């Protein structure tokens, strides 16, 4: 009996040691959060003049049930702390004025379309990801301006009961100042009762440290999917699968669902190589509706199916349907058919 007991004890000890060793090498991971919703959206372009009524009907016909509206603040230089904005109705674009935002929200709500208010900073000669101050004093001033800017729109969103607010977009060099951003978010919470999100660039979202203070992890999902000139669907899906672990690591850490606050592809043959490149820089590139549509399908066949996916907003959608070539909009192209197919499934 003693020998049997000794062997059992020895075996148990070995199993415990083996289990602990495996745990040290492969620690247990928390479950991935499951989103409670999955919004099917587009990034709505503010129109020059008032809507006529049928514009939202055309969007609803695609199966979309969400849109983002984008008013602007302006900054003259990436190193200048001054920021200006105008919520008034004397703006060039009716759709970006307070009146236009309210009218678009009311009209879309009647069609069962959820709204996200997503103010952007327009930076002359650059993009918001390069905003960076040269001194601590300028940083303090910039955040003072920015807090005033976003709070103005937070108050608007609360007044109109817009259900979601994006507190910042692609401000990559500012988000390293975690404490300042937490103060901005806390100030927004004081005046706004809806859901809030930050839209981090695909190169930025892993470094943001304040996701816990928000309701979602927001990603501007312009991930490069391939380096090939003529990728097939399998190539593009592989590109997504390479990026998925990066997203899931952040989801596990913060236990927040993900929303792709922007994603889009131009109708050119190189759409999947550097999706963020602006159409004006692709004028000499061969057009391809097929490639744009293939990029949409790759997204729907991969990231869209994940449990943590709370919604997507495709860049971009014109109320009047007009567009240039090349352009990001799927309207009137094969990509719209792909979007409608998958949006109509659920």
Automatic annotation (TrEMBL):
Pfam families: GH113. This is GTA TIM-barrel-like domain-containing protein. It comes from Algoriphagus ratkowskyi.
């Amino acid at each position: 009996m003693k020998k049997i007991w000794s062997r059992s004890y020895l075996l148990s000890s070995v199993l415990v040691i083996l289990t602990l060793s495996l745990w040290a090498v492969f620690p247990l991971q928390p479950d991935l959060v499951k989103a409670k919703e999955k919004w099917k959206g587009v990034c709505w372009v503010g129109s020059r003049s008032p809507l006529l009524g049928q514009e939202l009907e055309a969007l609803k016909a695609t199966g979309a049930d969400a849109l983002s509206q984008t008013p602007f603040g302006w900054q003259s230089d990436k190193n200048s702390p001054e920021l200006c904005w105008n919520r008034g109705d004397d703006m060039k674009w009716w759709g970006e004025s307070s009146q236009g935002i309210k009218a678009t929200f009311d009209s879309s709500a009647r069609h069962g379309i959820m709204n996200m208010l997503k103010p952007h900073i327009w930076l002359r000669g650059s993009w918001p990801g390069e905003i960076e101050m040269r001194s601590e004093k300028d940083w303090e001033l910039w955040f003072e301006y920015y807090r005033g800017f976003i709070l103005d729109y937070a108050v608007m969103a609360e007044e109109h009961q817009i259900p979601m607010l994006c507190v910042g977009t692609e401000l990559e060099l500012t988000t390293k100042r975690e404490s300042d951003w937490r103060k901005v978010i806390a100030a927004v919470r004081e005046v706004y009762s809806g859901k809030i999100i930050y839209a981090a660039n695909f190169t930025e979202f892993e470094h943001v440290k304040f996701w816990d203070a928000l309701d979602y992890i927001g990603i501007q999902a312009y991930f490069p999917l391939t380096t090939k000139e003529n990728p097939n669907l399998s190539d593009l899906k592989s590109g997504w699968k390479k990026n998925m672990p990066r997203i899931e690591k952040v989801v596990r850490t913060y236990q927040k669902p993900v929303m792709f606050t922007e994603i889009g592809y131009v109708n050119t043959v190189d759409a999947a190589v550097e999706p963020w490149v602006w159409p004006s820089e692709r004028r000499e590139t061969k057009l391809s509706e097929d490639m744009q549509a293939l990029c949409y399908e790759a997204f729907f066949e991969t990231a869209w199916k994940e449990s943590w996916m709370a919604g997507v907003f495709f860049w971009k959608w014109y109320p009047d349907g007009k567009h240039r070539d090349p352009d990001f909009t799927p309207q009137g192209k094969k990509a719209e058919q792909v979007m409608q197919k998958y949006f109509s499934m659920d």
